[in-house]
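Example record

The entry below shows one chain as it appears in the dataset: sequence first, then C-alpha cells.
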Amino acid sequence: QVHLVESGGGLVQSGGSLRLSCTASGRSFSNVAMGWFRQAPGKEREFVAAINWSGYNSYYSDSARGRFTVSRDNTKNTAYLQMNSLKPEDTATYYCASSPDGTTFASIVQAPHNNLNWGQGTQVTVSS
C-alpha cells in the first residue's frame, strides 16, 4: 500500500501563506488522483482540494477555491497544497489522500474515506 507523508504545516498569521507537501512511496503515484482534507477539533474530516492523476484537472471546496492551489510533481512523487490568504477558520490538521486506483479528482471527492490512502497529517494553525 502507498505510504503518504505530509509536511509544511505550522503557525501563521491571518493573511499569511503556507505550502504543504505530500510525498508518496511504496506504490505507483503518478497515475492516481490525489487530494487534501482537513479536520478541526470536534469536526468531521472535510474535503479541501483534489487533483487528477496528471495535474490537468483540479477541484476545490468553496472555502478553498480562490485561495488554495493544489498541484503535483509526478517526477518527485509529491503533491502540494499552496494556501494563501489564510484565515483562523483554516486551522486544522491537514491530511493528504490518494485514490488506490482512480485517476480523476472525483475519485477523491466521491470516495468513502476509508477507501482512500491517508497520510498522518500536518497541523496548520492560523492566528488572528
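Notes for this example: The longest strand covers residues 18-25. The longest helix spans residues 106-109.
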